[in-house]
Amino acid sequence: MQQADTALVLFSGGQDSTTCLAWALERYARVETIGFDYGQRHAIELAVRPTVLSKMRALSPAWDARLGEDHLIDLSLIGRISDTALTSDVEIAMQENGLPNTFVPGRNLMFMTVAATVAYRRGLNVLVGGMCETDFSGYPDCRDDTMKALQVALNLGMATRLKVETPLMWIDKKQTWELAEQCGGQALVDLIRFDTHTCYLGERGAPHDWGYGCGTCPACALRARGYAQFAQERRAA
User: Fold this and answer.
1) Which residues are involved in binding ATP (predicted)?
2) What's the confidence (pLDDT) of residue 136?
């Protein structure tokens, strides 16, 4: 564990951010979380956040001791200036620019800027985000180059030495399930399956093997495929 460092985890209540939270709790002496209400269509993710955090504490006395304050920030401005499938009731589709209309322009840029501001105030020196460009929908603000550029810009703009960590950047969804298992065992895998929320449509009916969701949106497809590969490998072992 890196005792000298403290972390702020971008925590939505989904699979990736919960895995990142576990990763951070294994490494940093103090960990806080931050979430954003931006008028997202799948606002159920905000509703599950407190339950996931509570159950994360219950998994490990060490995690309970390290896990600090949670911050929920109103960024409804994003929803008001966006016209996307994540902020309005429209069908998910590809756009002429080659990106799905689930891409919310500027979202991660604003998330990271606000998170850095909170980290500055709270005396935290590492930002942890679940951005990934291995299994992803092609969003440019999830790419490693974007995160590296943001780290430079944030530190120049605030005269800080914040470090941006993206533990999922170069792994696929199967490996994300594996990372969760490494951090918290089967108990964390099951917590992610049945307590987190990833589905873009906010569907939370009958559970699948991989958790709740519509099963057809891009987020569900990635999560389901990764879990199927993970479970198949475990059965074969």
Assistant:
1) 11-21
2) 65
For the chain, what percent of residues have pLDDT higher than 90? 70
19 in a labelled binding site: yes
Q: Is 132 annotated as a binding residue?
A: no
202 is in an annotated binding site: no
Q: Is 17 part of any known ligand binding site? A: yes
11 is in an annotated binding site: yes
| pLDDT tens column, 169-200 | 999 999 999 999 999 999 999 999 999 999 98
13 known member of a binding site: yes
- 113 marked as binding residue: no
DSSP state at residue 142: G
pLDDT at 159 over 50: yes
Report the pLDDT value the prediction gives residue 141, as an integer from 0 to 100: 85
What's the chain's length in residues? 237
Q: What CA–CA distance (Å, rounded) separates 124 from 135?
A: 29
Is 20 annotated as ligand-binding? yes
136 among annotated binding-site residues: no
CATH superfamily of 2-191: HUPs (3.40.50.620)
Domain ranges of the chain: 2-191
Question: What's the pLDDT at 200?
Answer: 85
pTM score, two decimals?
0.90
Residue 157 burial by Cβ neighbours in a 10 Å radius (0-12, 13-18, 19+): exposed
